[in-house]
Design brief:
- With 455 residues, this protein is α/β, with parallel strands linked by helices.
- It is built from 14 helices and 18 strands.
- The strands form 5 sheets. It has a 7-stranded mixed sheet, sandwiched between helices. A 4-stranded mixed sheet has the order 1-2-3-17. It has a 3-stranded antiparallel sheet with strand order 15-16-18, with helices on one face.
- Helix 12 packs parallel to helix 14 and helix 13 (405-417) packs across helix 14.
- 46% of the residues are buried.
- Pyridoxal-5'-phosphate (PLP) binds at residues 66, 123-125, 128, 151-153, 220, 251, 253-254, 278, 288.
- Its cofactor is pyridoxal 5'-phosphate.
C-alpha cells in the first residue's frame, strides 16, 4: 500500500520536517497541490535534472516545478545572467519602468502570433485574471466560458469543473458548474459557463445560447498541458468566437515555450485575442504576462495623469481604464532569468533536441508497459506528456475516467523510492539538460516499479 512503500527508502528527515511544517503551515504545504500521502518529500538541493531530498536521496526530476524549469535546476547561464544583471543594475528592483520590460515584450511580440503588446504579472493566475478583466471591459459582457478539466489558477470563477468526479459533472453536452473549493460564493459560479472540450457541436450550441452574455472563452489549447485540442475543433472555435463577438483567450501558462517557442498558437496557427503566459517565461522565478491584440491591450493604458488618481497613497485607475497593478510586475531579475532561458531555447536545434528526447522517453515507456501487458498510452505535445493507463482514446477530461489511476498512483509512489520524481498522477515535463542516461535510468525504474506493484 501507499503507506508501507516508504519503508524501503529512508525518508526519516523528510517525515520529521513535514511534521514540523504541519504545526505552522496548513497541511504542511505552501500550495494544496504539493501535498501527497503519506507525506510530501522535503528537498534540500538540486542540480540539472536532479533533486536531492533532506535524507540524501536523489531523484531524476520530471515535475520540474510543474513545468517551469525547462533548462533544469540552476542552469549556469541562467544563474549567471541573473546574478550579473543584479550586479549591473545595482539593485534587485527599480519599481519604475525599465529596459528589460521592453526587451522581453519585443521578444514575445516576435514569437507569439497573437501578441502585439504585453503586460507583466507575478504569476500565471494573475495573468488569466487580468486577461478576463480586459475581456469583460472590452466587450461589456459579464460571463466567461471555460472548458471542463482546464485549470487557470485557483480563483473563484475559474476554479470550477477542473477536476469534477463522474457523479458531479452531469451531462457532457452541458456540463455542470462544479466548484473546486469551499468558499466560492454562488453568485460567482453563475459568471461561468462550462464547455465540453473537443466537442464542437455541444460547444457551438452553448456558445450560441450564451453569446449575448459571454465576454470570453478561456482555454488551455492543450488541456492540462497534455491533451491537445483537435485542429478542427480549435479552428472552428476561433471562427465561432469571432462571429459571436466573444474574445478567445489562450491560457499558455503550461504550453508557452514548451510545445513551441511561440506556444500552442504557433503549432495550431491560430491567433487568440489574448494570451496568458507564465512558468517558463520567468526562468524559475515567479512570473506571468498577458499579451494580445493592440486594441484590446490598450484598454489598460493610462494616457494622462487624469487616468490615475491617488487615494491615501494608492494609485487607482479611473473607471474607463482597466486597472492593473502589482508592486513586483516586470521584475528585472525575473525578466533577466526569463530572457536568458529563451535565448538558450532559441539556440540551433535546442527545441528539436528537447522534443526528440521527450519522444524517446515516451516510446520507451510505452514499449515497456506493453511488454507487461498494461493498457497504457502517453498523451502529450512537445516537451510535456502524461502516462495514461488505458487504451481508450483520450480527447477530454471525461475520457480520463477510463484510466487506471489506482495502478498509476502505486507506480508513482514506487518511482519515488526508485529515484524518479513525479508528483503522483502528475504530467511529465522534460528539460534541455535531461540526458539519454536519465531516460534509460527512468525506464529501468519504471520496470522495477511495475514489478514491485504487480508482485
Ligand atoms: N494556467 C495554467 C494553464 C496553469 O497550468 C497554471 C499553473 O499551473 C496557472 C494558470 C496558474 O499559474 P500560477 O501557478 O503561476 O499562478
Amino acid at each position: 500500500s501507499v503507506q508501507t512503500s516508504y519503508e524501503k527508502v529512508s525518508k526519516i528527515q523528510s517525515e520529521a520536517m513535514f511534521h514540523r511544517a504541519k504545526q505552522v503551515i496548513p497541511g504542511g504545504v505552501s500550495a494544496n497541490i504539493k501535498y501527497f500521502a503519506p507525506h510530501p518529500i522535503i528537498m534540500k538541493s538540486a542540480e540539472g535534472s536532479q533533486l536531492v531530498d533532506v535524507d540524501g536521496n536523489t531523484y531524476i526530476d520530471y515535475l520540474l516545478c510543474y513545468g517551469a524549469l525547462i533548462t533544469g535546476h540552476g542552469h549556469q547561464q541562467v544563474v549567471k545572467a541573473t546574478t550579473d544583471y543584479m550586479h549591473k543594475i545595482g539593485t534587485t528592483i527599480f519599481g519604475t519602468p525599465h529596459e528589460l520590460e521592453v526587451t522581453m515584450a519585443d521578444k514575445l511580440t516576435a514569437l507569439y502570433p497573437g501578441i502585439d503588446m504585453v503586460r507583466y504579472t507575478n504569476s500565471g493566475l494573475e495573468a488569466t485574471l487580468l486577461a478576463i478583466r480586459m475581456a469583460t471591459a472590452y466587450t461589456g459582457k459579464k460571463k466567461i466560458g471555460k472548458f471542463e478539466g482546464h485549470y487557470h489558477g485557483g480563483y473563484n470563477h475559474v476554479l470550477v469543473s477542473v477536476n469534477p468526479d463522474q457523479k458531479e459533472s452531469g451531462n457532457e453536452e452541458e456540463p455542470n458548474i462544479v466548484p473546486e473549493s469551499k468558499g466560492i460564493p454562488a453568485h460567482e459560479l453563475k459568471q461561468t459557463i462550462v464547455l465540453p472540450f473537443n466537442n464542437i457541436e455541444a460547444t457551438e450550441r452553448l456558445l450560441r445560447k450564451h453569446a449575448h452574455e459571454l465576454a470570453a472563452i478561456i482555454m488551455e489549447p492543450v488541456q492540462g498541458g497534455f491533451i491537445p485540442a483537435e485542429q478542427d475543433f480549435i479552428v472552428r472555435l476561433r471562427e465561432l468566437t469571432s462571429e459571436l463577438d466573444i474574445l478567445l483567450i489562450f491560457d499558455e501558462v503550461k504550453t508557452g515555450f514548451r510545445v513551441h517557442l511561440g506556444g500552442a498558437q504557433s503549432v495550431y496557427q491560430i491567433e487568440p485575442d489574448l494570451t496568458a503566459l507564465g512558468k517558463v517565461l520567468g526562468g524559475g522565478f515567479p512570473v506571468g504576462a498577458v499579451g494580445g491584440k493592440r486594441e484590446i491591450m490598450m484598454i489598460s493604458a493610462p494616457t494622462s495623469d487624469s487616468d490615475i488618481f491617488s487615494v491615501g497613497g494608492a494609485s487607482r485607475a479611473k473607471n474607463d481604464v482597466v486597472f492593473h497593478s502589482g508592486t513586483y510586475n516586470g521584475h528585472p531579475i525575473v525578466l533577466a532569468a526569463g530572457l536568458e532561458t529563451i535565448l538558450l531555447l532559441e539556440q540551433d536545434g535546442c527545441m528539436e533536441d528537447l522534443f526528440m528526447k521527450t519522444d524517446m522517453l515516451r516510446k520507451k515507456l510505452e514499449k515497456l508497459y506493453h511488454t507487461y501487458e498494461i493498457p497504457m498510452q502517453t498523451v502529450g505535445m512537445g516537451s510535456i506528456f502524461n502516462i495514461v493507463l488505458t487504451n481508450h482514446s483520450i480527447r477530454n477530461y471525461r475520457d480520463m475516467w477510463q484510466a487506471d489511476t489506482n495502478l498509476r498512483h502505486k507506480i508513482d509512489i514506487e518511482l519515488l523510492n526508485l529515484g524518479v520524481y513525479i508528483k503522483p498522477l502528475n504530467r511529465y515535463s522534460m528539460s534541455i539538460v535531461h540526458s539519454e542516461e536519465n531516460i534509460n535510468q527512468t525506464v529501468i525504474a519504471h520496470e522495477k516499479a511495475i514489478k514491485n506493484v504487480l508482485n
